[in-house]
Amino acid sequence: MKQVNVGICGLGTVGSGTFNVLSRNKDDINARAASNIVVSHIGARRPNSACDTTGVNISADIFAVAEDPDIDILVELIGGTTVAKDLVVRALQNGKHVVTANKALIAEFGNELFDIAKNHKVTISYEAAVAGGIPIIGALREGLAANKIEWLAGIINGTGNFILTEMRDKGREFEDVLEEAQALGYAEADPTFDVEGIDAAHKLVILSSIAFGTPLQFEKVFTEGISKVSPLDVFYAGELGYSIKHLGLTRKRENGIELRVHPTLIPKTRLLANVDGVMNAIVVKGDAVGPTLYYGAGAGSEATASAVIADIVRVSRLVGERVNLNVPPLGYSLDKLSSDDVLPIEQTETAFYLRIAAVDKPGVLSKISQILSDAGISIEALIQKEPKEDQEFVPLIILTNKAIEKNIIDAIEKIEQLDTVKENVVRIRVESLK
Which residues fall within 8 angstroms of residue 74, CB to CB, at 6 or more apart? Predict the structure, then answer.
């Protein structure tokens, strides 16, 4: 049995989990890999008491791992897109395979890194970069290779999902739940990446590129966060039979690809609507297989380590082999990637939830309905609340049929100009996920 030497850079939450699972399940892992996988070098600024690293070479300089001639696979778990990128480039140039859990690195620089890897006849694997322990990358690249993917949609950020679940179940305000999420360690001190959708956008662009065989185009992802979602809208969505989820969605259309992250009303009958707390789930619709669901822990030390080690096992089979059997990084040969455009959000098509604060008097609803009709937008459902005592404005809840985003934007602008409408119209997209 050949020996495969692994160097781990970063011994934090995921790094320590990877080291410990490799040690604990060594016999099973090696049997699956048909190799003797040995962690022989660790790059970390400080030791981690959760790991027994006796006998392992440890360097404070992570680049020493990339320069170590005995290392076959470098595992990058330091995060970020500056030092991590330099480290990965150095490792690739030195002929080492790379395994990473770094979604930002792949989403923003993957095209460049894949080219470098190809030129040096090595590979980059990144199963752990999306949805933690859920093996969605392998499913898209290999398990669904027979299919033309029509669309995929996912809850791919646990922090946002936890916040929306608490708001729905307990009627709590966003800021209140965010503080709890930070106290529980689900959200960072600066939660921007999670609650404003940047983390989900990194993951979605990776999934979309694999699904449709396009280069990574992170700069074209439409991203909208959940910080403005009101408990009132969560409540009204429930009355209409929907749950609000922070959804990442990509869909192939004749004129391009939709690529968007935003709060979304999903029918309660859909499986994704019932994914709660910090869990992740992705639905993929293929033309041959139909819809398939992938559910599990989207983060965590050993859950993410599970995906990291799956890549180590797969890559270890390539080490020392003269025939390159590696799956292309995006599932398609790099020279066969399509040039399909990502559609601007104004050209995407979906249904909408609208909440309008309107004066309670005759004729107001007919004017609003006429504006929507003139824009080619039909109403699917409507809730008109009874006014409370001394309340001049009442909430009017409208669910539209599918409409082009530009048309709904134009219609809302006209609705907001009515003297009988107070405040800005609240707009949330709706997806049936059929």
Answer: 6, 7, 9, 65, 66, 87, 88, 91, 96, 97, 98, 99
Mean pLDDT in order along the chain per 10 residues (434 residues): 95 95 96 95 92 93 97 97 97 97 97 95 96 95 96 97 96 95 90 96 98 96 96 95 98 95 97 95 98 94 95 91 73 84 94 93 90 95 79 89 96 95 94 92
Q: Where in the chain is the domain with CATH 3.30.70.260?
A: 346-430
CA distance 197 to 332: 27
Reduce the DSSP state of residue 276 to 3 states and report it.
coil
Three-state SS for 162-201 is: HHHHHHHHHCCCHHHHHHHHHHCCCCCCCCHHHHCCHHHH
Per CATH, the number for 2-133+301-336 is 3.40.50.720
Order across the sheet with 57-59: list the strands.
57-59, 35-43, 2-9, 73-76, 97-100, 124-125
Identify any residues that bridge with 246 across adjacent strands, giving them in sequence order: 263
Residue identified by tokens 């001394």 is: 390
Residues of the chain with CATH 3.30.360.10: 148-297
Q: Which sequence positions are flagged as catalytic?
A: 203
Contact between 66 and 75 under an 8 Å Cβ cutoff? The reply is no
The yes or no reply on domain 346-430 and CATH 3.30.70.260 is yes
Structure tokens at 1: 């049995």
pTM of the model: 0.94
Read off the tokens for 195. Answer: 């609650």
Q: Which whole-number Å values give the CA distances from 15 to 24, 56, 80, 201, 417, in the listed order?
A: 14, 14, 15, 24, 55
The residues, ordered by sequence, that sit 6+ positions from 413 with a Cβ below 8 Å of its Cβ are none
Note the CATH number of domain 148-297.
3.30.360.10
Both tokens of 178, joined, read: 């965010």
Rounded Cα gap, residues 37 and 243, in angstroms: 45
Could you give the C-alpha distances from 134 to 11, 18, 236, in angstroms and in order?
Answer: 22, 15, 32
Dihedral over alpha carbons 91, 96, 100, 102 (to 10 degrees): 30
